Amino acid sequence: MEAPKNIEHQIGGIQNDTLRYGLNSVKSNLVGSHPVESAHQSTKKMQEEMERRILANTYGTAFPMRMDFERQMLSRFQRPTGAIPSSMLGLESLTGDLDYFGPEDYMNDPRESETARPLDTHHAMEVRIGLSKGPVAPSFY
Length: 141
Description:
By secondary structure, this protein is mostly helical.
């Protein structure tokens, strides 16, 4: 029996490509989200569930299922990778996020950072169709 001629470079089961994805940090793997962010997400989830129950009681159980189906369709629709990010306008109009103006709309947009890397379009498409692994585009150096 012949031994394999290539050696996979994996540490802990995770492919380590530091030139493409940057250095791994233990802190980013251990630290969770901010408590305010997690409270906001749980409140948003509870409001969505309450709205589903209200719609089911008002219009019947098929209406929330139809809205879930539309949400799934609109969340998959994206612009091809490139310089212009996908705005997900249809999904935002369905969920009502067009009326909400949160801190993510005006603070900390990674694309406006001085240290943002240019997007590697070829790698992003490889990740999307499953030929490559890893994040589509690392955001910082």
